[in-house]
Amino acid sequence: MLQVALDRMKNDDCVQLVSDCHPYIDIVEVGTGVIKEYGMEIVREMKKRFPDKCILADMKTCDAGKHEALQAFEAGADYTTVMGFSADKTILDTLRVSEDFQKEVVIDLLGITSADRIHELKHLGVTAVSVHIGKDMQADEGSFDVLTTFINALEGLKISVAGGINPDNIASFSKIKPDIYIVGSFITGSKVPSEAAKEIRGQMKK
Ligand SMILES: O=C(CO)[C@H](O)[C@H](O)COP(=O)(O)O
Question: What EC class does the entry list (predicted)?
Fold first, then answer.
């Protein structure tokens, strides 16, 4: 699946971009910064406007798990994100809320460097993770080592990948056999976002 990440964008531009890229995307990610700007209202609006798409609220929760998971799911999100380094209780609380709503928690592995934590997360009941090379880490080639380090530990999990994915580097993300490619800047920063989304879709097939 292709998840388009809406980051550093205005409300109307988010709506326009999803309308333009509609045939090529499966999941709409309302980025953390966009949520900080507009609050849960933007999640509510995206679900209302695009009921046929899955909506991911990139809450990046790291504490107060129950409250933030409730916020996301009550606003209509199908997925919410929780940081992998959070306390186990935070993760368990969000998983419990997701069961009540029959929605999904995606654990963001940003900042996790040891596969041991992935085994612990599985033990807690986590089923979906995002292997994420952060915006500020993308310049450091060493940050991409996790793609190799995590391969065995990821077995059995639903995997998303993110971190500056574009047609030139998508092959290096493919080696961990992701279920979901998360693409932000390459699509949102493109002159014709629908063409960029179509191109990524083509690369995903390859
Ligand atoms: O979660 C994110 C930043 O924290 C982004 O949504 C994710 O990294 C995808 O965006 P890009 O393709 O621009 O890296």
Answer: lyase
